[in-house]
Write a structure and sequence with these properties.
The chain is an alpha+beta fold and 71 residues long. It is built from two helices and four strands, in the order ββββαα.
Amino acid sequence: MNADKPRAIFNEKPESADPTKFSFYGSTLVVVASSKEEILERLNKDIYATSGVWDMDNIQIWPAKFAFRNP
């Protein structure tokens, strides 16, 4: 499984760079894996899961394709 670093999702655009002012909603992660089970196995071992930051009972996994355009 290849994964990017987790990224924050906000309820609204932050007005400043001060993280204490962020309206944090959750996390997002782009993963390349062969199955949902492979993703869950890896994520369940992650420090965010083992320390209780991520709510693994309510995690959402969505298949996606991404396209990038070269100017």
